[in-house]
Amino acid sequence: MAPTAKSFGKVLRERRLACGFGLREFAQLVGVSSTYISQLEQENIDPPTAERAAKMAEILRENADEWIALAGRVPDDLEGIIQKEPIGMPALLREAKGLTAAQLQKLAEQAKVMKGENS
Amino acid sequence: MNERFSLVDRQVPYLHEKQIEREARFILDQYELKFERKVTAPVPLEKITEFQLQLTLEFKDMKSLFPFADVHGAIWFKEGIIGIDQSLNPDENPSMLGRYHFTLAHELGHWCLHRQHYKENPNQPMLFDDGVRVPDVVCRSSERKKPVEWQADAFAANLLMPKPLVIQAWAEHHDGDDQPAEMATLRPANADKVFSLRGRLATTAEERDAAIKEHYAAPFAERFSVSKEAMRIRLEELKLFVENRPRLLF
User: Fold this and answer.
1) Which residues of chain A have pLDDT under 70?
2) ipTM of the complex, rounded to two decimals
3) Which residues of B touch A22 (CB under 8 A)?
4) pTM metric for this prediction
5) For chain B, which end, N or C, has fewer CB atoms within 10 Å of the first or last residue's CB respectively?
6) Nearest CA in chain A to B47
7) Are B91 and A27 a contacting pair at CB < 8 A?
8) Sheet holding B81-85, edge to edge
9) Which residue in A has a C-alpha nearest to residue B82's C-alpha?
10) Is the torsion defined by CA of B200, B201, B203, B207 positive or negative?
11) Cis amide prior to A48 (ω within 30 degrees)
12) What is the band of B236 on the pLDDT scale with cuts at 50, 70, 90?
């Protein structure tokens, strides 16, 4: 699914239905109440935590990071990653800001290769 | 939210029971065609709602929307939304499973039977304080049944407990015998039992009969995922309780 300006609740309902999950069935898979899922879809409550957004994305075969961002959250592991490299990581992120999705993808691939060389 | 919003009294055209039965049967036939699967008990109501009729199912806090009325279901025709009071959510209140199903089927009844009428005769639009449109029909548990509600109830009974499936379940339960049960036999068989009817002791003969029938209807209620009361009423409609069965000479 492409990044979208749509709200979390609307995207959730669209994707849940597209994947053929009933409201109560989906709630059961996520491990939450169906009233909660319904309230999310109606946008009566705040979007879910990063962990729950990732779980929903996994069930719906979506990109977890994208869904975490859609929920207005930051992936739980990022805080630890930045704290481990408090100078290099923020600098890298600032430099990478403004790159296109394709450029970011290329950068990520290069980082992967470099990590492989280190190990 | 003012109580007057829930008091829209709508006169809908008369529908014969047979017409309502046909409408419910049509929905089940369409389900079988669309999903290439026979309908069995319990009827897949949520799938019919979300994936066949493509309506939006929402749990709502009806008490906050309608503080002065005991609303358990509502429908917004234009938006295609069915709202069910969250107190009926069976995931949170498993004892409400039957009432949840009946309420949802009842709202589907409004959708199938009444949406054209509402489209042609729209309500004066009314809004809640937050700008959300007030539903076209609100269904309260404690109101005298108007034709619009009676028709939706009849539809719900036919959708959730289709005659052929009930007769089949009845026959299976009685080793292939689809004959009605005799109250003249059931009463003495239950003479020593104390029955309560919806939370209070069944004292009058009528209440006791209803309680005996609901006790007898319990396995069917479970199979069709409806309340014992709804099942008893359906079995009565289908004349599966009689005073005496006709005696055969041979």
Assistant:
1) 1-5
2) 0.85
3) 46-47, 50-51
4) 0.86
5) C
6) A22
7) yes
8) B56-60, B81-85, B71-76, B137-140
9) A38
10) positive
11) no
12) very high
